[in-house]
Amino acid sequence: MTARLTDRLSIFTHPPSVIIFKTLLTMKRIFLFLLTNLAVMLVLSATLSILGVNRFLTQQGLNIQMLLIFSLIVGFAGSIISLLISKRMAKWSTGCHVIDPQAPGGPQQQFVLDTVHQLADRAGIGRPEVAIYEGEPNAFATGAFRNESLVAVSTGLLDSMTEEEIAAVLAHEVAHIANGDMVTLTLIQGVVNTFVVFLARIVGYFVDKVLLKNERTGGPGYYVTVIVCEIAFGIAASLIVAWFSRQREYRADAGSASLLSSREPMIRALARLGGLTPGELPKSFEASGISGGAAISAMFATHPPIASRISALQQLRVV
After folding, report:
1. Cα gap 109→153, rounded to integer Å
2. Number of domains in the chain
3. 259 lies in which domain range?
4. Is 286 exposed, middle or buried, given 0-12, 13-18 or 19+ CB atoms closer than 10 A?
5. For residue 181, is it within any domain?
6. In angstroms, rounded to a whole number, what is the distance separating the alpha carbons of residues 15 and 268?
7. Strand 139-142 and strand 129-133: pairing?
8. What pTM value is reported for the model?
């Protein structure tokens, strides 16, 4: 087994053949995470409102201290629940098939499985589940825990890329896991959520009491304003998450270079992506994909420009 893996991974020292792709690797995992997080947060907020918690927060003026505690609970609950179900949601949204380590479905699946496992061993993490799904060239990594994660690759990627390029992409995804990007994302999202919940209720209280002159505690204006603000502020907060994602992409690229002991495979893979057309997945995962998809604007992009990523790799010193 070790000899076979060594032979397969020896392709990293040889230049790949030239293949022109018609699809761009895009991942939208971050959007699924954000949507799940926002949905959980809104459900928790609505449930607590029905239970009368909002009335308690505003019955004698706005209780800032209690509001902050409330915001922390709702905010971090949304992000943590989203993290815990991230792997299940990924499997569901892509319909991927997890490879049985004891009975891979052919040499191609064996190569993917062996490569991911060896890369995980090099990175010092538990061996992830490895899955394959039907679709355009794509790959992603997800999961709440470093030692219980998932790496999935599409049939389009396996059929379109050389083994060197596949391995570089897989190393990028393993680096995301080793770097703990999902956990860090969850913490950042929890902090952002706290501000979203807190500010939404501040604005709701202002609209209800100052603009609508409502004498009652928590009138309709308050509840409508809170819901609208939570959605609007939640979307605006995704700018912070997108910025964080862009920084982690550079680190995952560097991680790929480190795991393969060469920056060239990742540079070549990124260079090929420059002229490709987007291949769509369900509106799901973007933060841990190999390249970002179309975004409303550069601020919402979860991946830096390919040229910037190549430039960063070219300046990287691989030990």
Report:
1. 10
2. 1
3. 21-314
4. buried
5. yes
6. 9
7. unpaired
8. 0.75
Residues carrying an active site annotation = 173
162 phi-psi bin (left φ>0, alpha ψ -120 to 50, beta other): beta
Q: Is 193 contained in some domain? A: yes
The token pair at 261 is 């002991």
Say if residue 120 is exposed, middle or buried (CB neighbours under 10 Å; 0-12, 13-18, 19+).
Answer: buried
Supply the DSSP symbol for 277.
P
State the sign of the Cα–Cα–Cα–Cα dihedral 105, 106, 107, 108: negative
**Average pLDDT along the chain:** 77
The answer to whether residue 13 is domain-embedded is no
Examine the pLDDT at 24 and tell me if it is beyond 80.
no
> What are the E-state strand segments in the chain?
97-98, 129-133, 139-142, 150-154
Question: What's the average model confidence in pLDDT over 71-92?
Answer: 86
Q: Is 102 exposed, middle or buried (0-12, 13-18, 19+ CB in 10 A)?
A: exposed
DSSP string, 1-61: -HHHHHHHHGGGGSPPPP---SSB----HHHHHHHHHHHHHHHHHHHHHHTTHHHHHHBTB
In degrees, rounded to 5, the angle at the alpha carbon of residue 115 between the alpha carbons of residues 165 and 169 is: 30
293: amino acid identity, one letter: G
The contacts of residue 124 (CB under 8 Å, 6+ apart) are: 178
